[in-house]
Design goal:
By secondary structure, the protein is an all-alpha fold. It has 10 helices and no strands. About 80% of the residues lie in helices and about 0% in strands. Helix 3 packs antiparallel against helix 9, helix 5 runs antiparallel to helix 7 and helix 5 runs antiparallel to helix 10. This is Lysine transporter LysE.
Amino acid sequence: MDTSVIPLFLKSALIGLSIAAPVGPIGLLCIQRTLDHGPRVGLATGLGAAVADAMYGAIGAFGVTAVITLLTGARSALALGGALFLLWLAWSAWHGSDPKQAAAAKGGIRGWHAFGGTFLLTMSNPATILSFVAVFSSLAGGMATASPAWMIAGVFVGSAVWWFVLVGMVGRLRERLQTAHLRWIRRASALLLAAFAGYQLLTLI
């Protein structure tokens, strides 16, 4: 391994971490699913966002102008789809079964459903790609001797590390909470998800 790519990889990992860490609908969804369905589903939720971040990072790193233009032009449609998806998630969280009831019924939400949902939700925010393009432009000097693949890998690792840490902390808290507590947290999460959706819809007006 060429040690000259290590600083670039670490900078990119920091970018991925800084994008994933702020509390938003994805973080809220990850917390809620970890509490309701366990760390495995919570981690799948977070990794869906991490893969989407890496894909946007790839588009930004390689400077795929046609894709950037397409996504930017479709920003309103994607934002509308993301807002409607958030409303559906809010409705599902509000009317969801308690963890024990869900497990007894069909095993609760499946990991690949959780992964796919947050992947699509993250990809529905094309503003993310503009952030990657701007940040990766500042790192362009390091790309003279290193493949953009190191930047993409760094973004994924940084984002994934955050989701591992968050799920680990929430997973420990889950063991101390009773079913009634989880129900109230799920209802609060549903209201916040609906609020995020409402804000996103307002930005389209």
